[in-house]
Amino acid sequence: MGYDDYLAAEPVIVTAALTGGVHGKEANPNLPETPAEIGRAAAKVEAAGASVVHLHARRPNGERSFETARFQEIDDAVRRHTDDVIIQHSTGGTGAPDDVRHQPLRTDPPPEMASLDMGPLNRYDRLTSENTRALVDSLHAEMVDRGIKPELEAFNDGHLNEVRGLLDRRDLADPVYATLIFGPGTLAPPTPGNFLNAVRNLPEGALFNTLGFGRHQLPFAAMGVLFGGHVRVGLEDNVYYERGELAESNARLVERVVRVAAELGRPVASTAEARAILGLK
């Protein structure tokens, strides 16, 4: 993927990350947490142009949940409220035992996609998401068994080496789909140069999704559009619409990036087109 894909006006897939597993309504009261809230938010982002919804589960008290039953409630709500979106579960997490990290993969039916964090990252002062190669391999194996396409989350350049290592160790169905993530801490520093280097360092033939945290969400989405990639926006990654103004909804963030893509001459992929691009059945 690259600038030629932009010039060819290839469709761009928009993923909406609706809730996340870290901050909650204390950061933005419009962030959906309950299954019903997430279902309604999914309907609104679908209407705005998103074809993929990236889902985390929360307990009734707002804390992160990995439980299959809670993901099932959310999936059921999303399917009730939407016409046809691609459901993508998060398997990421800090401090959760490896067996617990598998639980989001076990809904009925399984999600069409699931995230796969490609390596360790620090969170706060005393927490680290380890994401060992053994865990990555076991999650990938269950995804293959259940017909789930992995979304390979690369939080820094070292994780791009881990993507190549995974390709050496295991057979991944084409096309490989990686999310390039930019922001503070362990994440790749959010500069245009680092974005270009990450795109250049992808395995040949890989598709990429672009994720910028906080105020970097919009400019990195624009770069993703310009360089033939796909984009992710939503309240998981950014609770503001602009400096000092909380985003009123996930849909508003999707609407903005859809306008940017249109102004730059790339159509937004329908769900059917997204499935074809991603090689989903």
UniProtKB/TrEMBL annotation:
Keywords: Metal-binding, Transferase, Zinc. The keyword Zinc applies. InterPro entries: Aldolase_TIM, BKACE. Its cofactor is Zn(2+). GO terms for molecular function: 3-keto-5-aminohexanoate cleavage activity; metal ion binding. Transmembrane segments: none annotated. The keyword Cell wall biogenesis/degradation does not apply. It holds the Pfam family BKACE. PANTHER family: 3-KETO-5-AMINOHEXANOATE CLEAVAGE ENZYME, 3-KETO-5-AMINOHEXANOATE CLEAVAGE ENZYME-RELATED. This is 3-keto-5-aminohexanoate cleavage protein. It comes from Haloarcula salina.
